[in-house]
């Protein structure tokens, strides 16, 4: 395959960015999108140019590090992570636009790399259980109803890639935050802190400068792990309940 790539290049957070055009040839349809970028970078290095900076780690769809907007879609045309997107999703001769996540809370570090530490700070605000648990308890020590366990696992699948923010027209982080809130709040181990958790994490999310949620649903459509939109409505109910209870104190 021969492709034309239009890639966002930006030296650092303070510099102006621009789209640069490159031609790549000999791309196998079985390559992943990141492997195709590796081929581009080898070509750039051999020609004495600066390679394109992009995030990656496991390349197995687990870590969420690969974060690119491809032809206007978060992670590209398939509902998967960028590292699991293969070049057979494109045609020979295609022109492909490659950009970083676009959100005020995700400033560009260099080229396609953005700073997603805002997600870390949201989790630090309450995405954990403070009770000391010691070693692993017996499997049946704390019975958990299967529907609750299934719901917790569904939300725990969130890998924090940020596709929900990139896809949202408002740059909201509600799907990510709700996934981290709900997967603990539905379990008995997380119940004692469920109110402070949702209040603290939502407040932190707002402080980070993410946009407001209008439930357009783009976040759930782009999520490679299929976190449902109902996660947001569930968190809103938790937040409203906790807010009312705090107001009565």
What does this structure look like?
With 249 residues, the protein is α+β, with helices and mostly antiparallel strands. Helix content is 35%, strand content 11%. The strands form 2 sheets. It has a 5-stranded mixed β-sheet with strand order 2-1-5-3-4. The chain has a two-stranded antiparallel sheet with strand order 6-7. It is elongated. The model has no long low-confidence stretch (mean pLDDT 95).
Topology:
Layout lengths: L2 E7 L8 E7 L8 H14 L22 E2 L2 E2 L20 E5 L8 E3 L2 E2 L2 H8 L21 H11 L6 H5 L6 H12 L8 H14 L10 H5 L7 H19 L1
Parallel strand pairs: 1-5
Antiparallel strand pairs: 1-2, 3-4, 3-5, 6-7
Helix pairs in contact: 2-6, 3-5, 5-6, 5-8, 6-8
Category from helices, strands and their pairing: alpha+beta
Number of helical stretches of at least 4 residues = 8
Instruction: Please list the strands of the largest sheet in the order they lie side by side.
Output: 2-1-5-3-4
Which stretches of 5+ consecutive residues score pLDDT under 50? Answer: none
Q: What fraction of the residues are assigned to beta strands by DSSP?
A: 5-15%
């Amino acid at each position: 395959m021969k492709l034309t790539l239009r890639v966002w290049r930006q030296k650092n957070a303070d510099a102006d960015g621009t789209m640069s055009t490159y031609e790549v040839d000999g791309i196998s349809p079985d390559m992943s999108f990141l492997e195709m970028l590796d081929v581009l970078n080898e070509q750039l290095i051999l020609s004495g140019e600066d390679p394109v900076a992009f995030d990656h780690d496991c390349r197995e769809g687990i870590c969420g590090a690969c974060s690119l907007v491809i032809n206007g879609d978060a992670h590209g045309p398939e509902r998967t992570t960028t590292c699991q997107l293969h070049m057979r999703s494109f045609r020979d001769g295609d022109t492909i636009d490659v950009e970083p996540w676009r959100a005020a809370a995700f400033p560009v570090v260099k080229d396609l790399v953005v700073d997603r530490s805002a997600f870390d700070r949201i989790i630090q605000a309450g995405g954990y259980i403070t009770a000391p648990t010691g070693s692993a308890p017996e499997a049946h020590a704390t019975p958990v109803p299967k529907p609750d366990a299934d719901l917790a696992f569904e939300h725990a699948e969130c890998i924090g890639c940020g596709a929900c923010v990139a896809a949202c027209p408002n740059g909201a982080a509600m799907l990510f935050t709700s996934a981290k809130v709900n997967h603990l709040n539905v379990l008995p181990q997380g119940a004692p802190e469920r109110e402070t958790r949702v209040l603290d994490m939502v407040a932190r999310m707002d402080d980070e400068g993410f946009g407001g949620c209008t439930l357009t649903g783009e976040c759930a459509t782009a999520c490679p792990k299929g976190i449902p939109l109902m996660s947001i409505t569930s968190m809103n109910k938790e937040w409203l309940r906790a807010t009312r209870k705090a107001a009565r104190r």
